[in-house]
Amino acid sequence: MDLHILEHRLKVTSIAKQGLFVFTHPLIKLIFLRSRTRCKFLSLTETPEDFTLVLDEEGFKELPCSEYLQVEDSMWLALNVVSNGHASSSSQAVGVTKIAKSVIAPLAEQHVSVFMLSTYQTDFILVREKDLSVVIDTLQEEFNIYREVGGECVPVPSQDVHNGFQKNGKEATKATVHPVLSPLNKFCVMSLDPDTLPTIATTLIDVLFYSSSCKDASHSSQDLDCVKFFSFSLIDGYISLVMDTEAQRQFPADLLFTSSSGELWRMVRIGGQPLGFDECGIVAQISQPLANSDISAYYISTFSFDHALVITTGRQQHSWV
Amino acid sequence: CSLGYGGSKPDILWSPHHVDRYVICDSELSLYRIESLGSTEAKAGVIQLSEETAATLLAINSDTPYMKCVAWYPKHEPECLLAVGQANGRVVLTSLGQSHNSKCKELMGKEFVPKHARQCNTLSWNPADSNWLAAGLDKHRADFSVLIWDISSKYAPEATVPPEKIRLPSGDADVGTVVTKPLYELGQNDACLSLCWLPRDQKLLLAGMHRNLAIFDLRNTSQKMFVNTKAIQGVTVDPFFHDRVASFFEGQVAIWDLRKFEKPVLTLSEQPKPLTKVAWCPTRAGLLATLTRDSNVVRLYDMQHAPTPIGDETEPTIIERSVQPCESFISSFAWHPSAQNRMVVVSPNRAMTDFTVFERISLAWSSTSSLMWACGRHLYDCAEERTGSEAAVESDIATKMRARAQSRYGHDTVQVWRNYVLAGGDDPQLKSLWYTLHYILPFQCPYLTLDQEQKQQGNKQTVVYSGIKNIVKSSSGTTESRRSWSDSDRQGDVVRYHSEERSLALRLCGWIGRGPDVDVEPFLRSLEQEGEWERAAAVALFNLDIRRAIQILNKGASSEKGDLNLNVVAMALSGHTDEKSSLWREMCSSLRLQLRSPYLRASFAFLTSEPGAYDGVLYESRVAVRDRVAFACMFLSDTQLSRYIDKLTNEMKEAGNLEGILLTGLTKDGVDLMESYVDRTGDVQTASFCMLKGSPGEVVKDPRVQCWIENYRNLLDAWRFWHKRAEFDIHRSKLDPSSKPLAQARS
Q1: Which tens digit of pLDDT belongs to each residue from A252-267?
Q2: Which of B234, B356, B403, B639 is the most buried (most CB within 10 A)?
Q3: CA-to-CA separations, A290 to A94, A96, A316, B611, in angstroms, rounded
Q4: Do A120 and B114 lie within an 8 Å CB cutoff?
Q5: Nearest CA to B210 among B144, B274, B153, B255?
Q6: Does the predicted interface ipTM exceed a cut of 0.85?
Q7: Which residue of B has its CA nearest to A117?
């Protein structure tokens, strides 16, 4: 297995819902006018709490300073596991499940905080740039590690594990068991030919920026049966969308791609209080049992909470909760 | 083809088997037939593609929306079966025009659907098993990006998904025509941008994946060979060299050797704009055509002479050039599958141009003066043709030298004049040269023609050797005598000059023999023998023997092939009178210019001239230099003679006229003269032989002479005349002892 350290240098930010108007212009530019920006990594996720925006430095420059924008101080790097044809297992489980044992658990043991971002195309594991040497130390036994430089993959020389090995410097906190919440709405994970993005522009703008205005009326006494969750990402030219079936109905059926099985997913939100960025082992906590049961999952971290998506078919898959 | 057709950029594909059909793909598929213009001119709807060809639209297929790539079925039948890769990753089989082929009907509309929808970037039919169709798709986290479909496979009932759950824009997809189970799945969690089957083995597939090129071996799908690179687009195998592969990234083309699949064997110069297509010419080895966005030129890289070096770090040379098939931008191009170097290009507005890349012409002279040039697959040999006696064009000097070398030209050291005959006997300048050398050399090498008198005159040797110009300069004690015509008893008024040097000059001119005898008669007889009647008559006349001159002319008129007009000339001569105001004189001086023979013109000029004023003879340029010089030595005073010889010498030097060697001898002057001769003719052979005779003088050491000699030796080498070269070297070492003994090559 290969682990690629991607070139993107990322910022994790949160836009307060009431401040969205300040950011609509840069967001529209970043999403629809790709030729006008150098941004190559953009992920926008709407939750009931906020809009979590993860984007590279070039994209970050487009954002205005505002009291509504919260920025996590660190620079984050994206890791990507590439199976590289050496199919190690016949397991059909993919996504976070696949990398739970090899990446997430070892990093948790070394107290490296991770920010997960699954897309239609792949899973990104975001780590802080300052943790990179620990990450490399931790994972180099399991992986051939490459760093992407100018589009080329350059092997990262193996570090001497015993010499210069540095712990993250944090005390191992006893794993907190966070409350989880599983809303009833079902989600689908989809993609889109970037050429047809203009065709769905109005719908996308509507869903992204005006969703609350129309829905709050009908769901004012919002119970926890349904939770607003919509994620759009445009990374290296690939589009990925996660939305519930209600939102999906607003899009023209023949433009969005998904699996031919038409699989639907249930979401599990982790955390009762905002989780913060320093606690480690949350993803590991969730993903380990999934991996043990060989259950496919998506995992999307946001500024406040983590979200795991698991496939709806097969009742036994929910038993882990 | 890995272009998306969502925009307006049309691509073009030639039918693999029907050499007159091609398809333009943009939002729809249009089938065209290409024909020569003559046969279709009158018909409507014909689009002219070039001066000679035109295309007719045969069919349009707009059944398949969201086309991303198209690949033409590689077998002869069904004829117009196409695989179309769509934006959602589905591959649809479709056809153009009507086909009554049952197999085609069965396959038409068949769809191959991946588990997870995403763009289909590329398609490639297996050239060996035409049921296998490889599709390259974009990345999906859980799915494979290279799917190999078997187009003959039936709908798989064991598929996990009931057909009613398929939510894709498949339209009224017939259940029986949808295939969801690929034969092979490769490249999990990766993206495939380009694909091509390797001709080495039916089960080897080369794929441009995300940031690497991979070779999948279907015999063992868990393994793959790969190399990390950015150049992953447009992978294509050289049809003439199956280990050579081209791929590209943005503006750069990388050429790979699959036997050394670690890094590109070479990368082509980077283009400022991103490339859109790279294709090997199927009809010409090692020719790669590339196209960039917004460009009206196709750039060609000729790697014909650059077989990929293995284990050699030096980059092979490639010849790069551009061709411009049309004025507008080129959207795409396609090489014709069989017509040599032919392509059709299509512009963004669908204008099409039929274009043939003209091959560079390479040209080579052989050392035997034949010329050869190559253009495309044609080789032209242009040899000199001897058209018998009426050779319209004079042979090239190289041809002449080669023939002369074969006839041992220059090697006759005894009868030196004979070298002129060996040279072909048709060049008056060579004749003069070799006769001059013939007359000079006995003086130079006295032991060859032993003669008491000459031995005594040993000190004259160098003078003789340095030409008449120097001889007459050294002249002293000139006497003059008044001579009259041999048949006249009157005291003549013709003044003739004598001196030892003048006699020597006459001898070098060949007029008189050796010894004290100054009789011109032997010379006249030899001229008669050669049938040079006019010249002999003139020489007799210049010796004031008018009766002998008349006799010669009569003889000439009565000889075989003789010219009867010579009798008329004799008649005119016989009327000669000294009377200054006679009618004869008047008529002779005015009519003589109409005579064709320069010698007859000179003769009458002499007869009608005032004493001491002989310009009519001296400047009659077609009279041989030796005769004019001999004449001058007889009739010009010392001052006149010296001035005349100087003037003539300069004239000869400037013209590079070998007759002038008589004047210059084998001196530095002579080398100057020879230099302009070589400049004019390139005849280093004559120059070498001539100047070698000058040994052991300074002339041989002259760098110009050494240069001629070396060039002549190289020529002999080039002609593979090894024996002639050896002979020449021996000859040279005899004449020029200073020339280095040549090393023996032993093997």
Answers
A1: 887 888 887 778 888 8
A2: B234
A3: 11, 9, 11, 134
A4: no
A5: B144
A6: no
A7: B141
